[in-house]
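Working notes for the structural subgroup meeting. M.R. asked for a predicted model of this chain before we commit to crystallization trials. I am recording the input and output together here so anyone reviewing the notebook later can reproduce the run.

Input as submitted:
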Amino acid sequence: MYWTYVLKSQSSGVFYVGYTSDLKMRLKQHNSGRGKFTRTKGPWELFHTEKFHEETDAVKRERQIKGWKSRAAIERLKF
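Returned structure, recorded in token form:
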């Protein structure tokens, strides 16, 4: 099982989009400063998730969301 996820920074409101096979572990990594982009912008909370059976589908969805480059479009995803 794979997940495409959107995180929202509790401090700055900025979004981060990614994919993973272990959502709990990945969120923990982001909040512990192990990601280059997310290190200084946390704490992070899950804003939106989507589940996929295939990794390629999760990657495609991640790229699609990142391609929007629109905060308003991402905000419409809210769970």
